[in-house]
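Propose amino acids for all 138 sites.
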């Protein structure tokens, strides 16, 4: 049997999450329930849909979208953007460390000297230089 996917929206209302099936049900069927905790929303929604349609719960798959008030969405967007910026910065820093290690070794510093200059162990200098070499090849 094939699984059906139902779009579900969860919205906070005081101490509860209101669960609404927003697509996938027949037009004449309204699917609304509630859950105390967000992690329970998918299970409650699947059970609701299975009961409404008189099918087995394992035949029901849900795609849950958490709906927040606009002021919270703005805060969440800033947090997501900051996290993406952090990932990019960490990646750039890693590339720069690799390039620096390779450049220091290319300037005939020993691995110990290069490690001391870069503030890492001589073993790490070797790893960084190897990564720089690998990324230059790719």
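Proposal:
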């Amino acid at each position: 049997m094939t699984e059906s996917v139902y779009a579900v929206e969860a919205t906070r209302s005081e101490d509860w999450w209101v669960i609404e099936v927003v697509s996938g049900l027949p037009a004449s069927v309204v699917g609304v329930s509630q859950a105390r905790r967000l992690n329970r929303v998918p299970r409650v929604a699947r059970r609701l849909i299975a009961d409404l349609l008189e099918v087995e719960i394992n035949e029901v798959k849900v795609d849950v979208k958490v709906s927040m008030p606009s002021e919270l969405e703005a805060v969440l967007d800033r947090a997501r953007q900051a996290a993406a910026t952090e990932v990019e910065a960490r990646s750039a820093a890693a590339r720069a460390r690799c390039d620096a290690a390779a450049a220091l070794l290319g300037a005939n510093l020993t691995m110990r000297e290069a490690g001391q200059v870069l503030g890492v162990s001589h073993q790490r200098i070797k790893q960084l230089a190897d990564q720089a070499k690998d990324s230059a090849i790719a």
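The mean pLDDT is 93. Residues 70-106 form the longest helix (37 residues).
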